[in-house]
Amino acid sequence: xxxxxxxxxxxxxxxxxxxxxxxxxxxxLALPLVGATGASAATPAAxxxxxxxxxxxxxxxxxxxxxxxxxxxxxxxxxxxxxxxIHRNIMRESSGNPLAVNNWDINAVNGTPSxxxxxxxxxxxxxxxxxxxxxxxxxxVANITAACNYAADRYGSMDNVFGAY
Length: 165
Fold this sequence. Notes:
- This protein is an all-alpha fold.
- The chain has helices at about 5-20, 25-30, 45-55, 65-75, 85-95, 105-110, 120-130, 140-155, and strands spanning about 100, 115.
- A two-stranded antiparallel ribbon has the order 1-2.
- The longest helix is centred in the N-terminal third of the chain and has 19 residues, at about 5-20.
C-alpha cells in the first residue's frame, strides 16, 4: 500500500473511532464509502451485516441495563471489572437503589455523604469521572463507571472489592 493510502486508512480509522465514541452509527455507514474504489469496495451484503452488528445497543432502564452499559463504557476506556463484581458491590452498598444516600458514616459527618448505587462521595466521583457519562453522581451508569474507575486505580478492579472501599 502506498504511503498516501496508509495515511488515508489511518485518517479514516480515526474518524470512525470518533464517530463511534460519539454514539452515532454514521461511522458504520461512512466506512464502506470512504476510499471505496473498484473491486476493493465492500459488498452490499457485507455492509448490511456490519451495520446490523454494530448498531447502538439498547439498554434496559434497570440495574441489569445500567451494569451492562457501564461495562461497555468501561471496555472502551480499559477499565477492568465484571458483571458479578459490580452487582455484588452494588447490592452491598445500596441494595440497587440509585438514589441511596448514606447520611450516617464519617463521610456524611464531614459533609460529603456517599451517593448512588456504589456509594461514591462527590470528590471521588469528580476525580474518577469517565468521559461520555453524566456528571450527576445519582446517574446509575455514571456512578457505576466512576466507582469502577476508582476501584481499578485503588484495588486493580471492582472484582477485588469485598467490603466498604
